[in-house]
Amino acid sequence: MSAGGFVRVSYLTMVLVPSIWVLYTFAVFAPQSVPWPMLGPLGTLTQHLIKNYPVQLYRGFWVAWGIHTVEAVIAAILTTTKNIGGVTRLKWIVQTQLFGLASLYMLILYKPKAKAL
What one-character-per-residue DSSP string does 17-69 give? Predict the structure, then answer.
């Protein structure tokens, strides 16, 4: 826990989530620009989804962004209820928009220190 009340997500999450988003974005908007066979079984699965379920991939992309946005709104509400403000609040909201539940879960678990009398 940092002194300002902000906890960043793990490095693993910081690498995996953006990588998946980039892969998903290319699968939906520019599938011809990725050498899918070079990605092994993941590439084969993605090619199958692109060929057989393009509409579902497209809709799923926007649903996932919507879910992350709802999580960011929840983070905004939680930071208000936990009296987290300023830059720290913004960090929580942006991190939750980018990394979703991994960040929101840490915010839910965060217990602010009681103010001294």
Answer: HHHHHHHHHHHHH-GGGS-GGGGHHHHHHHHHHHHH-HHHHHHHHHHHHHHHH
Instruction: Give CA separation, 62 vs 9, 25, 65, 69, 80, in Å.
Output: 23, 10, 5, 10, 27
Strands (E), 11-117: none
Read off the amino acid at residue 55.
V
State the distance between the two ends of the chain, measured CA to CA, in whole angstroms.
Answer: 23
C-beta of residue 46 within 8 angstroms of C-beta of residue 32: no
**Model pLDDT, residue 4:** 72
Higher pLDDT, 1 or 101: 101
What residue spans of 82-113 are helical by DSSP H?
A: 86-99, 101-109
**CA distance readout (Å), 25 to 8, 18, 19, 58:** 24, 10, 10, 9
Distance separating alpha carbons of residues 24 and 26, to the nearest angstrom: 5
**CA distance to 61, 65, 114, per residue, from 98 (Å):** 14, 9, 29
